C-alpha cells in the first residue's frame, strides 16, 4: 500500500482504520464504505431491539445498564472523610469474544 493512499484514507475513526486495512483487497472504496455502514446500522438496530448483537466469527456485543448511584454518603479513605458524588445512570457496551477467537490467541 502506498503512503499517499494510507495518508489519504487514514482517520482516527474505526471506519478509516478499516478502509486502510482493507485497501489491499480488490474492492473499491465506495463498496467498502457501504459494507461497513450497513454492518454498523445492523448492529445498532439489533442492540436497540434485543440488547445484544452477534458479530459473525468474532463474538457478541451486549448492552449493560448501570443504575444511578445516590450521593451524600460519607466514606473514610486514608484517614479522611469523603462525601460521595451522585452518578447518573449509563449504558455500556460489552464484548464477549467467541471461542474460536480466544483459541487464536491462546
Task: Provide structural commentary.
The protein has 106 residues and is α+β, with helices and mostly antiparallel strands. The chain has a domain at 1-50. The protein contains four helices and five strands; from the N terminus they run H-H-H-E-E-E-E-E-H. The protein has helices spanning 3-9, 14-21, 29-50, 99-105, and strands at 52-55, 59-66, 74-77, 80-83, 90-97. Strands 1-2-5 form a three-stranded antiparallel beta sheet. A two-stranded antiparallel ribbon has the order 3-4. A hairpin with a 2-residue loop joins strand 3 (74-77) and strand 4 (80-83). The radius of gyration is 21 Å and the shape is elongated. The mean pLDDT is 81.
In short:
This protein has a domain at 1-50. Helices cover 42% and strands 26% of the residues.
Oligomer: single chain
> What overall form do the CA principal axes indicate?
elongated
Beta content: 25-35%
Q: Summarize the helix and strand pattern as letters.
A: HHHEEEEEH
Number of strands: 5
Q: Order of strands in the sheet with the most strands?
A: 1-2-5
Structural class comes to alpha+beta
Proportion in helices: 40-55%
Rounded average pLDDT: 81
Low confidence ranges: none
Q: State the distance separating the first and last CA atoms.
A: 30 Å
Query: How many whole angstroms does the radius of gyration measure?
Result: 21 Å
Q: Quickly count the helices.
A: 4
Summarize the biggest pleated sheet: 3 strands, antiparallel
Amino acid at each position: 500500500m502506498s503512503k499517499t493512499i494510507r495518508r489519504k484514507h487514514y482517520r482516527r475513526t474505526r471506519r478509516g482504520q478499516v478502509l486502510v486495512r482493507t485497501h489491499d483487497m480488490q474492492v473499491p472504496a465506495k463498496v467498502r464504505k457501504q459494507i461497513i455502514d450497513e454492518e454498523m446500522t445492523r448492529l445498532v438496530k439489533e442492540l436497540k431491539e434485543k440488547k445484544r448483537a452477534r458479530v459473525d466469527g468474532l463474538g457478541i456485543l451486549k448492552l449493560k445498564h448501570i443504575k444511578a448511584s445516590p450521593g451524600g454518603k460519607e466514606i473514610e479513605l486514608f484517614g479522611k472523610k469523603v462525601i460521595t458524588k451522585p452518578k447518573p445512570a449509563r449504558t455500556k457496551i460489552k464484548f464477549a469474544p467467541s471461542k474460536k477467537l480466544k483459541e487464536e490467541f491462546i
